[in-house]
Design brief:
By secondary structure, the protein is of the alpha+beta class. The chain has 7 helices and 15 strands.
């Protein structure tokens, strides 16, 4: 095992779940994006993980208001499935993790070398908060799974942002979901907005939502609140419970000569296959529209 400096900080937690579930949630990107934050004003919109000795990992950690963000990256130096993970961060600091199942619970111990910018106490609190958040996630998994789709568009974030939310263009690129797609309402933060469309028989359906966050050219978060069925707004009942609280987030990241546009969307089992088929088509259409302008 790697030897850490004497100043290393240790944190622990005991999770009411078996080692198989704990390991899956800790190592798979589709789970990492749900729990990897120390406070509610931060999130991890994107994660990558090549879990093997010599493999690399990346977690993109950002403030939800778009004010700051950074890539948490490193290289694995040891991986023993469901037992041990050791890695070195890109700044040279080392981290050791051990997982041990005790009856129907799993004990997680994490030891890390601190940096010098913040106090040891502050770093311990921050890392422990993330570990506590992980425990909550495993013990109380969300009813949705998060899907992520992305595309690089040869246009600036300003152009992509302006183009996609334009009323006419919205109808064009979201036609992949419904040929009669449109919205009613405002994109301002806190505003109510309806996402609508008609089926082959002319019945009106859609989502009742609100704009949870809107940082122009950087980040937009949509929270779904209810559904519209045959033109009737529903905010309670089994059909509503399927979607209430689901998030759909758009992240705009400037790259050389263009924009990396990332969609993180919650989905239940019923709609996962549908989203996996239609979102890539919709993003290709959006790319085409933005690059034509």
């Amino acid at each position: 095992m790697t030897t850490l400096e004497k100043t290393a900080i240790a944190i622990q937690t005991t999770i009411n779940s078996n080692i198989d579930k704990v390991w899956e949630c800790w190592t798979e990107p589709q789970h990492i994006v749900h729990w990897n934050n120390a406070s509610d004003d931060w999130h991890t919109p994107r994660a990558e993980n090549d879990l093997r000795k010599g493999g690399r990992f990346l977690s993109r950690m950002e403030a939800k208001d778009g004010s700051m963000g950074f890539d948490f990256t490193g290289t694995y130096t040891k991986v023993e499935p469901k037992k041990t993970i050791e890695y070195t961060m890109d700044d040279g600091r080392k981290v050791l993790l051990s997982f041990e199942q005790r009856n129907n619970k799993t004990f997680v111990n994490e030891v890390f070398e601190p940096e010098t910018t913040h106090t040891a106490e502050m770093q311990q609190q921050g890392w422990q908060a993330i570990l506590d958040n992980f425990k909550r996630y495993v013990e109380n998994p969300p009813k949705y799974k998060k899907l992520q789709f992305e595309i690089v568009i040869d246009a600036s974030p300003e152009i992509v942002y302006k183009t996609m939310f334009d009323d006419k263009n919205w109808k064009k690129w979201t036609a992949e979901f419904n040929p009669n797609s449109y919205y009613e309402g405002s994109w301002q933060k806190g505003s109510r907005i309806l996402f609508l469309g008609t089926d082959s028989e002319g019945n009106l359906g859609g989502m009742i939502s609100r704009i949870k966050e809107n940082i122009p050219n950087q980040f937009v978060s949509i929270e779904h609140l209810g559904v519209i069925n045959n033109g009737i707004e529903l905010t309670s009942g089994p059909e509503v419970d399927t979607w209430a609280g689901a998030l759909e987030n758009y992240t705009f990241t400037e790259e050389i000569g263009g924009t990396r546009f990332v969609v993180d969307t919650d989905a239940n089992e019923e709609y996962m296959a549908y989203f996996e088929e239609t979102w890539p088509k919709a993003l290709k259409k959006l790319k085409m529209i933005c690059e034509e302008d």
